[in-house]
Amino acid sequence: MVATEIMKRVDPYAVAIALFTEMHRRHAFMRSGHHFVAFKALVDSYVTTKEANAESQLDYAALRNLLGMASMMSGKDDEAEQEFLRAANADPNIGYAWINLGLLYIAEKRFDEALAMIKNARDARAVKTAPFLLANALTVRGLALWGKHDLQGAADSFLLAARVYPQTFFGYYYWAKLMESVGDVDAATLLTERANVNIFNFEVYPESVLLYFGVRTDKDFSLSHLNLNAVRNVAEVAAQQ
């Protein structure tokens, strides 16, 4: 308890993201609105304290992005959109807030808006300098193009994601799903094999919502809860959806 109180003063963002990660692991957001209310109150207290504003100890944009992800997990998409916009507007170079907003728009079939968000993301300094985030942005771009029935554009975007970050899981996973959807079994099998290898090796950013949701490309591009810590291969990922 004492250690937690000290961490709240020294690095409250670390406390917030640790709590978020633990709640995701237990699927608490999906089960109880009480958890979300408590988490939101915690984040709001961090970003509104006089100490935070005066000392600049907090990353306002990062905390708002985190609250956006928590809102998505609680099914509060309107609140999630507002939090991601707050994060992105506060720091356009944060990058992953634009990516998260793009994925939210895909789930709402707002594919053109999703593409606009990914353009913003690719212009962000944080994305340009982090291959993993750039691959995430390109993967979400591929999903948006797929939703618009531009299958070649989607495949090209997934390919580019794999090129900029060969350890990507998501790029290979959705690329395999795309090939499967058009009946190219051989290509789908090869891409799935690479995704299976990468599922144990890819770098994770806990601020990226792509880690917590899967896109149901075989249905309506809605999102389903995803826990990569509980899977060992692509088949188990698909089973969660």
Overview of the structural elements:
- By secondary structure, the protein is mostly helical.
- It is 71% helix and 2% strand.
- It contains 15 helices and 2 strands.
- It has a two-stranded antiparallel ribbon with strand order 1-2.
- It is globular, with a radius of gyration of 18 Å.
- Mean pLDDT is 87; it is low at 1-10.
Helicity range of the residues? over 70%
Listing every helix as H and every strand as E from the N terminus to the C terminus, the arrangement reads: HHHHHHHHHHHHHHEEH
Query: How widely separated are the two ends?
Result: 37 Å
CATH class division of the largest domain: Mainly Alpha
CATH fold-type name of the largest domain? Serine Threonine Protein Phosphatase 5, Tetratricopeptide repeat
CATH architecture level-2 label of the largest domain: Alpha Horseshoe
Q: Total number of β-strand segments? A: 2
- Largest sheet properties: 2 strands, antiparallel
Averaged pLDDT: 87
**Shape call:** globular
When the domains are counted, the total is 2
Question: Number of helix segments?
Answer: 15
How big a fraction of the residues is strand?
A: under 5%
Rg over C-alpha atoms, rounded to the nearest angstrom? 18 Å
